[in-house]
Amino acid sequence: MNVVPSSGANSVGNHPMPSPGRAAYFECFSGASGDMILGALVDAGWPVSDLEKALKSVDLEGWTLEVKPTKKGALRATQVTIRVTGTQPERTVLDIAPIIKSSRLSEATKIRVLGLFDELADVEALQHDEPPESVHFHEVGAVDSILDIVGAVAGLEALGVTHVYVSPINVGGGTVNTRDGILPVPGPATLELLRRRNVPIYATEYGPEFLTPTGALVLGCLSNGSGAFPAMQVEAIGYGAGQKDFRIPNVLRVSIGPLSPGRRNQTSISVSELEETVGHNELDDADHSHDFPTGHDHDYGHGHDLGHEHDHSRRPHASIAMGATESGKTFAGTATIAAMAPDGPTMTAIVESSLPSLAGKTDQRSSDDGQYVSDDVVQLETNIDNMSGEWFGHLTDVLLSRGALDVTLIPAQMKKGRPATIVSVLVKPGDTDRAVATIFSETTTLGIRVRPTQRVTLPRRIERVLTPFGPVRVKVATLGSSVRGVSPEFDDCREAALRTGATLQSVMDSARDAWNRKGVAANPI
Which one, of 102, 186, 84, lies nearest residue 139 by Cα? Predict the structure, then answer.
């Protein structure tokens, strides 16, 4: 989203802290779909004329737009319907990418829309065991599905949203007819997307399908966190209506406004309940702290939407130094650039979910005006002096696989000279319960310190480059318009080295050289 954070009064050290940003919180008590997201954004203040302009900026024919007020149960809402007037071809991500790139959308919107289709291709490829670029989207390639995604991303940008949060999502249940046959609700691709994005879900009844694949894709991939209301000031409220009538009002509610500076999002765990330091697992006075129904079948769920669609999550990966690991699980969107140059590699730029970067910039090496990025996190910490060292490696792997952002292991010396390890875990507020349960079940600790806090980071992005040893992801950190660091992903380099017999150093050097030659600036999106 095109975000220029305003100056804030907070500070970290000697550096001014940017404004926390502007949030959109989606309450998914009746699931979500593409048209419900559009209706909620229009109801919250996005002019219909701007929605129509955004949709018409994509050169696609065979559709009409209808926007009308309606009621679902006791709730007034806005219903947006994109009607298809002709037969649509099946399209792959390589067919859709040129349509989006040649559109008159902002560069930031193009990047995120391309990223969502890249997500779709990856999950569908996983389901069908074929390369992502070969996957045909069936109904996903239809006009209304493309425009649902375009409209959702453009609407969030137009309303100045920098952070997206979602409640636990009511997914419904039962089964749904798709072109691949009868599938359970939620469908395999939808459930896999939600799993990778750590989005909590539930069901109030057995059917119908409340959460469509488009709703899962957009809210899951663009979300900065899930759970209860973030600390924010609500300035606008919108209700988007689905196409069907259910026992509960078939609407999606969005609340939009500035995040509250200096406040922390609350977790569902009482700090007083968990700040237990019993027995010899505590270091006295220690205070260590770190900085989808298929297609257009209206007999199911919310109506027109993507089919059992696709997800392109970045699986957790760890870089370990002094026991510290960093998860790659917060990536929200990817942008595939296929065959941008006749002899050039396919490259992918990935946008980290907590970063309002790439806003309207064509040079992917620049952050959004060089602003720092801040987000709310929870730090969990415990001291352990009676557990085998091998267990800590297992604990780290389990925590990262369950959504932890960082796991740090710090050697310490406790009272009476006992050697110990301080386990420090950083999680999103919505993942606190799960991380606490994991630490208690996987360690010998008797108590955990819980500290809601805020982290400030430099903008980072992931670019994929082609080397003689295969594709490798490269992490790029920026400060203003300058690049502060370029680091090939260790896991990718190690896999390439083992597969080809090359040395790890040669693979990493090749990745750096490829980035210097073929950086995203040479292949603008």
Answer: 84
Say if residues 222 and 62 touch (Cβ distance below 8 Å). Answer: no
Distances (CA, A) of 462 to 9, 229, 330: 31, 30, 12
The letter for the amino acid at 151 is G
What confidence score (pLDDT) does residue 129 get? 65
DSSP 8-state symbol, 19: P
Q: 3-class secondary structure for 361-374?
A: CCCCCCCCCCCCEE
How buried is 158 (Cβ within 10 angstroms: 0-12 exposed, 13-18 middle, 19+ buried)? Answer: buried
Alpha helices in 106-176 (DSSP H): 107-128, 143-158
Of 287 and 174, the one with more pLDDT: 174
Backbone phi, psi, residue 110, to 5°:
-55, -45
Q: Give per-residue pLDDT as tens, 338-365.
A: 222 233 332 222 222 333 332 333 333 2
DSSP letter for 203, please. -
Neighbours of 35 (CB within 10 A): 29
State the pLDDT at residue 478. Answer: 83
Q: Are 407 and 382 in contact (CB under 8 A)?
A: no
Among 512, 429, 413, which Cα is nearest to 467's?
512
Model confidence pTM above 0.70: no
Distance CA 225, CA 428 (A): 7
On whether the CB atoms of residues 155 and 45 are closer than 8 A, the answer is: no
H or E element in which residue 505 lies: helix 504-518
Q: Tokens in use for 54? A: 């955004």
Confidence of residue 273 (pLDDT cuts 50, 70, 90): very low
- Residue 128 pLDDT > 50: yes
Q: Kindly indicate the confidence band of residue 28, based on its pLDDT and cuts at 50, 70 and 90.
A: very high
Sign of CA dihedral 355, 361, 365, 371: negative
Token readout for 260 is 């509250």
- What is the C-alpha to C-alpha distance for residues 40 and 54, in angstroms, rounded to an integer? 16
Residue predicted with more confidence, 42 or 471: 42
3-state secondary structure of 155: helix
Spell out a b/e string for 217-249, using b for 16 or more CB atoms within 10 Å of the CB, else e: bbbbbbbbbbbbebbbeeeeebbbbbbbebebb
Most confident of 227-231, 299-303, 409-413: 409-413
